[in-house]
Amino acid sequence: MTVRETLDFSGRCLGVGNQYEFLEELLRQEKQLGITPDFDVDVFMKAIAIPGQESSLVTDYVLKLLGLDICSETMVGDEMRRGISGGEKKRLTLGEMLVGPTNVFLMDEISTGLDSSTTFRICKNLRQIVHMMDVTMIISLLQPTPETYELFDDIILLVEGHIIYQGPCEDVLEFFENMGFKCPERKEVVDFLLEVTSKKDQAQYWSKELSSHSYISANEFAQAFKSFRIGQKLSSDLCIPYNYKSKAAQSPYALEKEMYGISNWKLLKACFSREWMLMKRNSFVYIFKTTQLTIMSLITMTVFLRTTMHHETVADGGKYLGALFFSLMNMMFNGMAEFPMTVLTLPVFYKQRDLFFYPAWAYALPTCVLRIPLSFVESAIWTILTYYTVGYAPAVSRFFCQWLALFCTNQMAMSLFRLLGAVGRTMVIASTICSLTLLSVFVLGGFIIAKDDIAPWMKWAYYLSPMMYGQNAIVINEFLDKRWSTPNTDSRIHEQTIGKVILSSRGFFKEQYWFWICIGALLGFTLIFNLFYILSLTYLNPISHSRTIPLEEDDIQKEREDKGTLVKSTSSLVNGAPKRGMVLPFQPLSLTFCHVNYYVDTTAEMKGHGCKDDRFQLLQDVSGALRPGILTALVGVSGAGKTTLMDVLAGRKTGGHIEGSIKISGYPKKQETFARISGYCEQNDIHSPHVTVYESLIYSAWLRLPSDVDIKERKMFVEEVMELVELKPLKDALVGLPGVSGLSIEQRKRLTVAVELVANPSIIFMDEPTSGLDARAAAIVMRTVRNTVDTGRTVVCTIHQPSINIFEAFDELLLMKRGGQIIYAGPLGHHSCDLIQYFEAIPGVPKIKDGYNPATWMLDISTPQVESQLNVDFAKHYANSSLYQRNQEMIRELSSPAPGSKDLYFLSEYSQPFLVQFKACFWKQYWSYWRNSEYNLARFFMTVFIGLVFGVLFWNKGGKISKQQDLLNLLGAMYSAVLFLGGTNTAAVQAVVSTERTIFYREKAARMYSTLPYTFSQVAIEAIYNVIQTFVYTLLLYVMIGFEWNIGKFLYFYYFILMCFLYFTLYGMMLVSLSPGHQISAIIMNFFLGFWNIFAGFLIPRSQIPIWWRWFYWASPVSLTLYGLVTSQVGDIDSTVVVPGASNNITVKVFLKDYFGYDYEALPFIVVAHLCWVMFFVFGFAYGMKFINYQKR
């Protein structure tokens, strides 16, 4: 959805324009009291209270208020789809609540990702709303500037669960002075409040010289506040009871009595319109899914073409049964796309449900109803294309009955998978539940194993399988037609017609009325599944495993005290620290960029909004220099192009067009060599979640340090870097997933810096290293950055809303304005004096106020509004300044190579040779997989569960083969055992590989390794787990099914199952590497699984496949596995079996060869063919990872 559509929907649900009665009451009371309302306020209140186009007016107001009007028609986007920036998303979250008639706002960290100027402007507008509309608002902020802090009326200071102050902002310093602590000059109040309560920093603010300081805990502060005058007033105010008898309290509109802002009918309409719009926006998924179904139906009609379909014998009926079962399977599998779509939309649903946007049923019903036309179209396409071309019963009524049965089956499947997605709530859990459920309904559907062959104590499960009713409906519709009424001549079978013989052979119902009972059962299952889907959405909450590791302050303090060092406060960052040496030397390098321009191709959406050019310029004539030992800040408002410039300089852009000159110490930049001497700390802190901090650093150092650095030196260097960035106490902590488990945000930031620093780079780029941190955590990260610069490296950081101390820790500044232009490049000076003098010298620019944050001031005075007021273009002013001329001279000087210097050159593209890369990658994959308990537990639970299910259902059937159905049951067992657990492996591995692929993109861009060692290492670790999985599965199946105890046969069975698991797993890995996202790879997976399924040799034997499709039988790995398993176990048996319709009994060996085309002598060829398939998927995975990159930057 676009930004405007998101706010419109929020306003519609929360009740904008639904306050007409309230307005009437307000006007009546104003008239009684003789109040004349402000004209503008009166018009606005009337406009938003009257139903109609109400939400658009409020939306326009909120868009303007939050500065989102410039991106109002832009899609919100996600990790893979380009959309609005992180700061704009934060403001959009805020806007979702502001558009409603809410009177109490609780806002958590609304400034994350915003520059200080934007934060100040938003908070100023929120202050006006509070004072004008008399609403209650509590806001938590990270790193607020002094001027933003001064906008607040009251402050709540919370420490270790204790409120140690709550009251006016202007009185908080008085409270702490009474306690003996004083805020120094040029110390921001916010920083002081954070540090004065910290055990580490409290002592430096002690102001009572006559007495020594002893640590005052949070509990002691809280007790002292109760006796402070503000605390006493607060207590007395809380003792005054609310006057519920007042006229205002007696008003019917004093309190809301409804749970939701509008009526149920209006909520349902709003959710319907949103779901319809989202379906149109995601039309590619539905079109892709329908196209896939259409292609599969075209293949089906050519495989089961009516010219090859006869209906005179029982054997002919077997072919029709295969065709009908495949139709039913496609309708079932086609519904599987619902579960990933359900899981992906749950986070937004849970947020909006908990904010009382709408009830769960209003969200669920549109999804259920709007999928009905989709089922109708898909089942119609399948039936129309296949019914008469395959040659089913020609009666028109039976055509519509099959359509109805397939439609009901598809609806049931969609409802079932939506329910499972809502119950699972995560991809891995939902995928596991879906596989188990699908296995149960599939095996007990009546085709894989006949009803009469199911153990009596398991018959109840047969009747609980919804697929059984769909299977019975379509076979009854076909085989009770008059063309199957040929008399039965086999005296061994007590049925009158061929049709009933076919039905009874599989235990299907044989009366026509059962068709309608089955249709009713399918509709009943659909209703029940949808009902439970609504209940799941109503009562289940998102799965949370929050286990972030707090900062071990005591450990860090103890470690420093042991070394005789003191912990510095944030203000100490501005003081020059001595240069630090390190174990490994590096070459200091400068980077210059001159007249750099960057363009992106104009999209159709951009052209639709008035952009006429084919290219859109994001950076305009940008020049500057980055030097060793100099910490440079890259600052600008949101959308100024800071990250874009950094990506261009670092060579991380995957698209667009770059112009201009970029040089490294005077030589033209070559990305192949530049990546070896540079580091890039991304804003998103992308790390492997299942390795420790120390392992992450060892891995990075192993692959990025030169090959001549031995293990001892490498470990010493890693230890040194850990000390530098203060990570030693967290050495053995798991990294975890952001916001879910493992490290905190601030700790992840430091790890990101350390991962790049252990590469011993000369130049480091850091994208917003303090974003998302409070002032104290930001100071810890900046101390890390400062320590890095003090080693003599070249460091540049983009930064948002820095405090005074953090801002003045930088040596130089590159200031950009919106449009990608430089408006200042140069030194900050002591207390930012150089920056202030430069801008104050421009006529009309207001002077900076005492105590004002220079970072906020420079952003405030360089906005487009101020430029318009002053009639000045800051970019042009800078280009005409003497500062610009001095910078150009410096750039020219640094762009010429120093005498005696050499261009960067390395003997090889990567630091380590191929085998070392493979060893390092395999080492990390080993630990990642070993600790990924969710994935491994799901994998082995599924293995044991499916093995036991098949073992129980087919107990001891491997040694009891006396009739054709026994062979078909055994073949069905092999077919199901292969298809289901193999398909589960394919689905489960995709989530793991998708997560690792994001990390791979970062590591590949850093030239840590070649693609092949990485892919081969991931293949190798999966192969190890597959070997163990195969052993467990083979042992269960082989023993319980009761195959002959022969070492040769057992090894054949183990080999074919192992190869099957391998190629299914590698197939899933390959699909992830070739597709942009999880949804598309899941659809493609099902499409090709359908191919493999139809040509597996079970639904239609090879001898009965039309000659034009027979080649694909050999191109289906599943058919080869089925061939190998069945032939190796029973292909050499000479005992006879009873075959219905045959005059004489025939041997198992002959029956397999004549009916299925299985030849025992061909086993060596089947063994080799499996190896070829495995290698094909290995290289397919490697090709996708090497040549296809869906990351757009």
Enumerate the spans where pLDDT stays under 50 for 5 or more consecutive residues: 550-580
Q: Please count the beta strands (DSSP E, at least 2 residues each).
A: 18
- Spatial sequence of strands, sheet with the most strands: 11-13-14-8-15-16
Characterize the overall form: globular
Helix content: 55-70%
Number of domains: 4
Approximate strand percentage: 5-15%
Structural category: alpha/beta
Mean pLDDT: 84
User: Major sheet: size, sense and barrel closure?
Assistant: 6 strands, mixed
Distance between the termini: 21 Å
Q: Give me the Rg, rounded.
A: 35 Å
Total of DSSP H or I helical runs spanning 4+ residues: 47
Membrane topology: Multi-pass membrane protein
Subcellular location: Membrane
GO molecular function: ABC-type transporter activity; ATP binding; ATP hydrolysis activity
Keywords: ATP-binding, Membrane, Nucleotide-binding, Repeat, Transmembrane, Transmembrane helix, Transport
Describe it for me?
The protein is an alpha/beta fold and 1193 residues long. Helix content is 56%, strand content 8%. It contains 47 helices and 18 strands. A six-stranded mixed sheet has the order 11-13-14-8-15-16, sandwiched between helices. It has a four-stranded antiparallel sheet with strand order 7-6-9-10, sandwiched between helices. Strand 9 and strand 10 (667-668) form a beta hairpin. Helix 17 runs antiparallel to helix 23, helix 42 crosses helix 43 (1078-1094) and helix 42 (1047-1074) packs parallel to helix 47 (1163-1187). The protein is globular and about 110 Å long. The two termini are 21 Å apart. Mean pLDDT is 84; it is low at 550-580.
